[in-house]
Amino acid sequence: MGNVFVSETDHSQIVSIIDWQHTSISPHFLQARWPVFLSPPDNYTLGPKHPKPPEEYENFDLHDKEVALFEKEKADNSKAYEIATYLNNRATYKALWEIDEPTREFFKRIGDSWDDGKVPLKMCVHKICETWSQLGFSTTCPLDISICDKETLSQHSAEYKQWYGIHDFAKKYLDTDDDGWTVPQADFDEKKLQNKALLDLLVERAPTANEAMETRRMWPFPI
Question: Are 223 and 195 in contact (CB under 8 A)?
Fold first, then answer.
């Protein structure tokens, strides 16, 4: 979002787009995606169901209530975008939510392997092998993944999911991207304080000293 410039007098008017070096022509199902600022929380449910706070919300402490309300607000915004897309842009709606996930993920991971490494791509290929017949293929899958490969991939997958979860948590609650970009209106000093507070919170809640140390090692932004 830091590459899109809008008019100072009319924020709905795009006046410039910079950094074109990574643009590409791709199928619709790869171009269609949630806008960064409208991406849903992890527990989001597609369809007409209205987002609600967790059932145990009243028993939460003050901090957990704030997190739950933050997630609820994100889900409300995502739901508005989902419904608007369905009503006004049916082709994009289908591209977003009616393409089988292994197919979409495979093409996406090929392009992201430079940043995310090979593990997510290998996880995706493994998923395609497991669901080969469900994807509509009548022939045998040409790839044969051994038991040893599966065990190694399982270990690497767990490590990647931990790394990704920490990075996603940081980006989501600091409202930034992989490179730490934030909107010009944001107070950068306040963002730095939030960055440290979030890391301290995760470290404090880590169940073991080793996990606390791993959390610090994997944290994406400098303190």
Answer: yes
Give the list of residues 6+ apart from residue 160 with CB closer than 8 angstroms, or none: 116, 117, 119, 120, 123
Partners of residue 46 on adjacent β-strands: none
Q: Rounded to whole angstroms, how far apart are CA atoms 47 and 158?
A: 30
Reported pTM: 0.55
- The closest alpha carbon to 120, from 91, 163, 87, belongs to 163
The single-letter code of the amino acid at 128 is: I
Task: Give per-residue burial for 37-51: e unless 16+ CB within 10 Å, then b.
Answer: eebbbeebeeeeeeb
Coil, helix or strand for 99?
Answer: coil
Distance between CA 19 and CA 196 in Å, rounded? 30
Query: pLDDT by residue (tens digit) across 18-74?
Result: 888 777 777 888 788 888 888 888 788 888 888 988 888 888 888 888 888 888 999
Structural tokens at position 28: 């619709």
Nearest C-alpha neighbor of 34 from the set 77, 2, 68: 77
Cα dihedral angle (11, 47, 104, 2), rounded to 10 degrees?
A: 20
Q: Distance between CA atoms of 66 and 54, rounded to whole angstroms?
A: 12
Please tell me the number of Cα atoms within 13 Å of 48 on its side-chain side. Answer: 1
| Both structure tokens of 215 | 């959390």
